[in-house]
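Why does residue order matter? Because the sequence determines the fold. Keep that principle in mind as you read this record.
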Amino acid sequence: MNILTRRSVVLLAILVLFNVRTASASAQDATSEPGLNEWHQWRGPRGTGEAPLAIPPLTWSETGNIVWKTPLPGLGHSTPIVVGDQVFVTTAEPFGDEFEPRYSQAEGAHDNAPVKQPYRFQVIALQRNDGNVLWQKTVLEAVPFDGRGHFTASLASASPVTDGQFVYASFGSYGLYCLDFDGNIVWQKTLGQMQVKHGHGEGASPAIFGNTLIVNWDHEGASFIVALDSATGEEQWRAARDELTSWSSPIVYQHNGIAQVIVAGTNRIRGYDLKTGAIIWECGGLSSNIVSTPVAGNGMVFAGSSYEIRSLFAIRLDGASGDITDTKNVAWKVHERTPYVPSPLLYHGSLYFLKHYQGILTRLEAETGDEQIGPFRLNGLREIYASPVAANGRIYFSDRDGVTIVFSHADDPEKDVPRIISVNKIDDRISASLALAGNQLFIRGEKALYCIADNEGE
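Structure:
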């Protein structure tokens, strides 16, 4: 069998797995659920932050357990995705002659970085085993129209997704692109220009389920959510949203045989029918400036915010219809230590979340909202943008100083108190969430992409 034929068979097998996947699946025997060895979107195979079959390393440094480290051009905060023998990332790279700095003209703009050059918006594919760049595709060259965003942001903050056959990369106002695994553009689409609050930049990642690609477009203009045919880019449906700017990504969760697109917003978190775009249910109670993305499992959805309002609540989907605010479908609420930038993690029946974007960790029973133990102070972490991920009984938290703390889960916290297992440091800044696949951990820094694996065994 030649290389092309072999690759076609692998891609077909992966495609079949992704098309039968139920995104953010409810708890089940991990060995019987397909696609769990991949990290095809920024929150992992179930959309919850968990890699059920991965056994990532416990310790690393610039001198230990780094399999490869590949410099990346430009700047991006998108999480790498891992499928088969390839890793994909996006970036935005300035080039050409500099001009007078151009700042955002948005109302209330502050703490923003100017644009001084045109940018190349790129998708990059790397070989998983050695980090060699397979291809680097520039999908657009343009001068950003509204500055670079918040000084901590990037023009490539939305994470790509894959269905195992194509890679879908969103650069928001600068286009949505479908590429094959050889770096060829299959289709591209422009959805307009976002008018982002305070000019702080864009960042919501697309979601994919079967042959449907979903993009959320919440901004200061006419907000909407749109579903596209992943093969062609043709619109399947579009729904207007009564929302202002958010940076929260949509998730897809299948409940009682119906796939729902779930999106958090300032006014409501809503569940849409994936096939039609009709609203199934909606619930108020979050704040403005929504950044964290909900998670879902076991028939429940968990969403939180922490801007001018601290709020996190659980929604029970059985019987959820219409406006369920303050109904029995809201299973529980908390108003302390709620998340702002990092999204919650759903792992082994526990819901983990960080206070605002600080190193104070809360763990609740997902079913009841009870706090059996904690909270925990993650000494050594400061400003945290990356969302936590989990595998093999461990939780991984990374901050913008390049520090990652590994924390034990402990299914029975009364007998085995959760604790910090290790503190690891690289010489880079980490804003992107980590990706876990097999025995590897992928860290996207601001300067390089790291592949980390345990070289010594445990």
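The two ends are 37 Å apart (CA to CA).
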